[in-house]
Amino acid sequence: MGEESLGIFEKYLSLWVIICIVAGVALGHFIPAFPQFLNRLQYASVSLPVAVLIWLMIYPMMLKIDFSSILRATRNLKGLTVTCGTNWLIKPFTMYLIASLFFLGVFKQFIPPDLGREYLAGAVLLGAAPCTAMVFVWSSLTRGDPAYTLVQVAVNDIILLFAYAPIVAFLLGIGNISVPYDTLILSVVLFVVIPLTGGYLTRRRLLRTRGEEYFRGFLRKFENITVIGLLLTLIIIFSFQGAVIIDNPLHIGLIAVPLIIQTFLIFTIAYLWARAWRLRHDVAAPAAMIGASNFFELAVAVAISLFGLESGAALATVVGVLVEVPVMLTLVRIANATRGYFTE
């Protein structure tokens, strides 16, 4: 994607992200009634305002899906192998090793052992939950195949239902892991089922009644919706975390280090694996993105239910939210800059 082909939002996306992060933190700090009000608008630990914005981000991508291509996408087992192998056989375990190294070793003079173990628990909860919603945004920004991205997300959601609790229990040695399945199921419905259904029905109706040319014009109306939705989501998320950021600057920085290293490592493993198998770039980029990003709604909900709202585990999952968007935007730029190394 050349610089000249980008719109004003995409071209200066990093600048808009920084502005929205600062605005969100300031809003939460100086007008705490705003996030308090929004915090009441949630169900099963999922913020409904954020859900609506994420839906607006995903819906335009669902409109682009030629639904007959979904069946063809499932036949490309190499891409699914990269996604599932990275997410479930590598990612949770590298997260545990990297987080242990830093929280219980490198940073032990700054972090008490008990608190370090709580941070480790939060990191593992993040590492065992591959992304469900935002990966559609990252895929769109790298011009990923929307049908294939949908298949990747659907397969990971199915595995998540069965594998999340056992992996977390094994790595942390915690029995009776209580996964909030209402959060998990609601997120899948909100972030996959509803926009998928809406996109399918809209595309089918417009193509049948108005024709291909009208439909293409209709798609162009949504060109900036995804990025605008992302920026508004950032303002809301960071308004929730304004006090946390201001009150815990050192520990937030320390927690961010292994999370960022893990994100780049997982992206690199999946991306190079896809390159070695000669996958198309529009399959390779989403395959790497889904593993690098996290299902943070689930991780935060589990951390709060297991360890409490004020726990180190909950703080670690929140930091995962804070670092994810800037880091993922960096990976988007890397993926776009290396497109020439893959087949189209």
Automatic annotation (TrEMBL):
Main location (coarse class): membrane
Cellular component, GO annotation: plasma membrane
Transmembrane segments: 12-31, 43-67, 88-107, 119-141, 153-177, 183-201, 222-246, 252-274, 286-307, 313-332
Key words, A-Z: Cell membrane, Membrane, Transmembrane, Transmembrane helix, Transport
Compartment(s): Cell membrane
A GO term for molecular function: arsenite transmembrane transporter activity
Official protein name in the record: ACR3 family arsenite efflux transporter
Organism in which the protein naturally occurs: Methanothermobacter thermautotrophicus
Gene: arsB
